[in-house]
Amino acid sequence: MTTTAVAVSYPLDDEQCWATVCRRDPAAETAFFYSVASTGIYCRPTCPSRRPRRDNVAFHVSRQAAEAAGFRPCKRCRPDQPSRAQREAALVTESCRWLESAEEPPTLNELAARAGLSPYHFHRLFKRVVGVTPYRYARAQRTRRLTEELRGSGTVTEALYQAGYNASSRCYEEAGRMLGMTPGRYRAGGEGLEIFHAVRPCSLGQVLVAVTERGICNVQFGDSAPALREALRWQFPKARLTEARERFQDWVDGVLQAIEAPTRASALPLDIRGSAFQLQVWEALRRIPTGSTASYAEIARCIGRCTATRAVARACASNPLAVLIPCHRVVRSDGATGGYRWGEARKQALLAREREQDPE
After folding, report:
1. Cβ atoms < 10 Å from Cβ of 82
2. What is the spatial distance between Cα 225 and Cα 182, in angstroms, rounded to a whole number?
3. 304: nearest Cα among 89, 108, 125
4. Which end of the chain is more exposed for a tag (fewer CB within 10 A), N or C?
């Protein structure tokens, strides 16, 4: 089984580092630093200064290591200052905090003006760093507030206004997409909602597949059918749980194929709900090829959140769609399998199966 690095990583191999300096690879801006003996300075790999002679260059894992060796920072690339990526991440983080706390979501023009950028460049930057547009992020945050208010407010009307909606029609439109049901149904534990489900035996025990009219919304492993049905009932205590009809059998069969023959599995319609961050992580997981793995840290770097390794792990643990969102392909940085919501033995079995079936 091959291991795919989801994000670029540069170990301190002199030849690889030198090739990176020659390319001025922007992905390596903070991966290492290089010093030039003839000038006494140290630079980022992306420094625009004239390329030094190779025999004058040494490489350092950090700016502190370069300074400890007696070199001073370059005045062009400013390696002692936050990198461009870090400055951009800080700008976007500040915008995210504003979107999360504002009663009325600020417009794109307002966000861009606050960041000191044009709306076009801010929109591109925000989507590159966060993975979704400012509009989608704001909508996800408002839906999060709505779910919190629905659990605590006196009425649905109070909840939707407390969450920042100034019109119930807009609230019902957005909540239908994010919650999969009306706010009233969500508050009532799915009352009036019909969820079709089936429990089937597989090589990893029992698997529950739950679907809505829009797609597969839940896939869980377990040891007994009654326990799996009870878990679904706990999640939607007032929904009507119905055995999957014949028209959903192809979806159920598709899940079984994804478990037993992952390399031959076909795409299935999914009904995925989660926070903006969770959706971003889950989308990154779906890009890991069958037969490959990535570490939690690599996933964090892939989505532009290098310090969010633990949050990535939590998003993996809250994955509602076993196998279809392949959180089993995420391992620890030291190569160990790591935890798995449905048991480490199942995770190892899935990885072994993909390794055996990997055509490469």
Report:
1. 12
2. 29
3. 89
4. C
Going by pLDDT thresholds of 50, 70 and 90, the confidence category of residue 180 is very low
3-state secondary structure 23-85: HCCHHHCCCCEEEECCCCEEECCCCCCCCCCHHHEEEECCHHHHHHCCCEECCCCCCCCCCHH
DSSP per-residue string spanning 302-318: HTT-TT-HHHHHHHHHT
**DSSP per-residue string spanning 186-247:** HHTTSTT-EEEEEEEEETTEEEEEEE-SSSEEEEEEES-HHHHHHHHHHHSTTSEEEEPPGG
What 8-state DSSP symbol labels residue 328?
G
Active site residues: 43, 327
Task: For residue 160, give both structure tokens.
Answer: 């939707």
Q: Among 28, 84, 327, which Cα is nearest to 19's?
A: 28
Phi and psi based region of residue 164 (left: phi greater than 0; alpha: psi -120 to 50; beta: remaining): left
Percent helix / strand / coil, the chain, rounded to 5:
50, 15, 40
DSSP label at 106?
Answer: P
User: For 85-106, how does the pLDDT look when each residue is reduced to its tens digit (9 = 90+)?
Assistant: 777 778 888 888 887 777 677 8
Taken in order of first residue, the domains within the chain and their CATH numbers are 14-73 (3.40.10.10), 82-187 (1.10.10.60), 194-264 (3.30.160.70), 276-357 (1.10.10.10)
Question: pLDDT tens, 145-172?
Answer: 655 544 444 444 444 444 444 444 444 4
